[in-house]
Amino acid sequence: MLTFPTARRKEDLWPHVREFADRTLVHVRRTLGRLAGAGQLAELWAVHGHYADAGEAAALVAQTLGCPMLMTGHSLGRNKKVRIRAQRCINSRIPVPEW
């Protein structure tokens, strides 16, 4: 798993999604090469993204490596939903079960 070293607002990361994907590719290839050099068989089965920006990075990485991409959507929290509706940015939400 790759993460940014310090907390940032996700909106501040959007201009860097492609760079993150490129650096992830370097890391994955280096790690797989290192494992192969040590005689450990390893293969990348899939790339996972969570939330929209990570999903975009995951899609870029998966497409380049030719492996499946998995996406876990992110729901709006109750407090955020109330705030967004108050600002009239969103009027409704696709109904889904609450877990």
- The number of strands is 2
Number of helices: 4
Helix content: 40-55%
What Rg, in angstroms, do the CA atoms define? 18 Å
Main pleated sheet: 2 strands, parallel
Backbone structural class? mainly alpha
Notes on the structure:
It is a single chain. It is built from four helices and two strands. The protein has 99 residues and is mostly helical. The chain has a domain at 10-74. The chain has a two-stranded parallel ribbon. The radius of gyration is 18 Å and the shape is elongated. The two termini are 26 Å apart.
Attribute tags:
single chain, mainly alpha, 48% helix, 8% strand
In short:
With 99 residues, the protein is mainly alpha-helical. The chain is 48% helix and 8% strand.
Detail the topology: elements first, then pairings.
Blueprint: H1 10-13, H2 17-37, E1 47-50, H3 52-65, E2 69-72, H4 78-86
Parallel strand pairs: 1-2
Helix pairs in contact: 2-3
